[in-house]
Structures are given as C-alpha cells and as structure tokens.
Amino acid sequence: MAATTTATLSTPAYTVERTPFPAPSKTITGYANNTLTTVTRMSFTDRLLLTVSQGERSFSHWIHVPLASASSSENVNPMGRNTNYSHIDLDEDDGDTDLLPRSDLTATTLLGGTKREDEMVGQTLATMIGSAVLMKRPREERLLVLGLGLQGAGEMGRQGFEEVVGLVLDCL
Predict the structure, then answer these.
(1) Nearest to 77 by CA among 47, 49, 106, 98
(2) Most buried in the list 8, 97, 102, 122, measured by CB within 10 Å?
C-alpha cells in the first residue's frame, strides 16, 4: 500500500506593502500639433530619462545628450553665449540668440532616426531640452536620454514644435 503525504503551505510572516517606483517621476498630458501628447520624466542617479509620445506611437527615436561636459564649461552662460564680453559692445547685443539651444551640447541618436527630417527635429528638441535643464540646474551632470514617438515629426511646423517644447518644459 502506498503512503500518501500532504503538504501544508504556510503564509509568509511578513506583509507586502505597495511602494512607488524608486525613481522620482512625473507625467503630463496635453495637446501638441493637434495630437494628444504624453511627456514622462524619470530621474535616476546617473541619467534623466524623458519620453514624448503622441497617440499610439511607440518610441521610434532615442537620443542622448551628455550634460556633464556642458555644465563644466566656465565660459558659457546657461544660454550658450560667451560670457567674456570684453571684445563686444553690450548695447549691440539684441538677445536674438537667447532662445537658441546651447552650442556646446551634442545630441547623438542612439536608435531610430532613420528619416533625416525626423532626426533633425529630434536632435534639435534634445539640445533644447538639455539647454532648459542646464538653465534650471547649471551644475547638472547626468546624461539626458530622450525617447520620441512623434507623429510626423519631419512635417511638424514651428507651432507644433513649440507646443512639444512647452509640454516638456512643464514636465521638467
């Protein structure tokens, strides 16, 4: 005759509590280029991850911008202009370059960006975001990683681009 055994399962002696994701994050949603757009920011110790998606688009373009080299340069103010004004007349400075991204930031495509127009929009957006981060936190040294899922990025007009930038700035 075969012996039968029964096993009893015991419950663990600890309780499981839900905790938030360990990285501080923020998500906002709004309209850019007449399309519902979601921007998410996650702050890790070594990088700042931003994603911008429109509609049901997946992230088809990933870009990174090293902020460490830009934040360590002493001759450049947060807007990228030379702060040594000894060779120019300050009255002639009309501020036309104040809204341009910093010239010392280099955006590099990691994945995607196979269409030249989309790549240009993505890299310009990445350097503008990097400039905004450094204006807000001049000593920032983390790597900025940007994931884009924009509908028709290459055909996006100035207004649509500005709306995307505005949503990203609200998320920072």
Answers:
(1) 98
(2) 122
pTM for the complete prediction? Answer: 0.72
Distance of CA 59 to the CA centre of its chain: 13
Joined together, the tokens standing for residue 2 give 């075969």
Contact 5, 135 (CB under 8 A): no
Cβ neighbours around 120 below 10 Å, total: 13
Query: Helix or strand or coil: residue 116?
Result: helix
* 172 residues of the chain, pLDDT tens digit each: 555 555 555 666 777 777 667 889 999 999 998 999 999 999 999 999 999 999 888 899 999 999 987 655 544 444 444 443 333 444 444 555 555 678 889 999 999 878 888 889 999 999 999 999 999 999 999 999 999 999 888 888 889 999 999 999 999 9
Structure tokens at 15: 């309780």
Among candidates 82, 97, 116, 102, which has minimal Cα distance to 144? 102
Sign, Cα dihedral of 37, 158, 111, 116: positive
Q: In what order do the strands lie in the sheet with 143-149?
A: 25-32, 35-43, 47-54, 143-149, 61-66, 108-112
Question: Which two tokens mark 144?
Answer: 């900025």
